[in-house]
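ok, trying the design again with the full structure, not the truncated one.
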């Protein structure tokens, strides 16, 4: 699998703090970036937002609006999940990348990182997805893994896909394994099954027919 650092790009040079706002506006008019990094004498000082720059005085320089720059960035050493978190928290489609010495080395684009995500086993490999829910204080990732693996299932990925003050929903992708047995084991451990499954629907149908037959025989 490709390393995420292979997606660090310098297709466009960073904005120099001495550039005029007019030239930066022209730059944003030609690209679809929400933010872009700004350097002062080669040092990263923040990212300027496309929405903000529309209100700035075109005759002034970028450095005159230094106080508006946003300081988010990713380290070169970050794993892809941490990079995705930076994208999400800052509502951006570009992230400056700094090395361990805080030197600017390029930027990530959201489109490239999503392409990287599509190459992970979670999306690329075939398998089934189960979404389960349990109380915030009651769930355990270790228990989730144990339930799947005790039924000879192979986990391709697992993450908390939704959470509130009371419950969490966990999305699990399973490469191989008996889905129905895994689902029923989750139920025995008091996990609610949020996703719908053909195997599980079949079991429910058999149970409904059995209940109907019992009622009929007891008439």
């Amino acid at each position: 699998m490709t390393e995420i650092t292979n997606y660090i790009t310098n297709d466009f040079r960073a904005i120099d703090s001495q550039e005029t706002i007019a030239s930066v506006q022209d730059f944003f008019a030609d690209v679809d970036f929400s933010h872009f990094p700004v350097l002062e004498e080669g040092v990263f000082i923040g990212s300027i937002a496309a929405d903000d720059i529309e209100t700035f005085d075109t005759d002034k320089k970028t450095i005159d609006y230094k106080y508006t720059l946003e300081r988010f960035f990713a380290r070169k050493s970050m794993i892809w999940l941490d990079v995705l978190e930076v994208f999400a928290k800052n509502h951006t489609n570009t992230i400056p990348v700094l090395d361990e010495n805080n030197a600017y080395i390029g930027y990530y684009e959201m489109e490239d990182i999503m392409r990287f995500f599509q190459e992970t086993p979670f999306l690329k490999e075939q398998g089934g997805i189960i979404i389960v829910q349990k109380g915030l204080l009651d769930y355990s990732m270790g228990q989730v893994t144990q339930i799947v693996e005790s039924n000879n299932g192979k986990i391709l990925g697992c993450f908390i896909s939704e959470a509130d003050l009371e419950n969490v929903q966990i999305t699990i992708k399973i490469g191989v394994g008996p889905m129905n047995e895994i689902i029923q084991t989750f139920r025995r451990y008091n996990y609610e099954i949020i996703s719908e499954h053909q195997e599980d629907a079949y079991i429910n149908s058999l149970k409904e027919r059995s209940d109907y037959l019992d009622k009929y025989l007891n008439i």
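Keeping the full-length input from now on. The helical segments are 21-30, 50-53, 80-90, 110-118, 121-124, 141-150, 179-188, 198-217.
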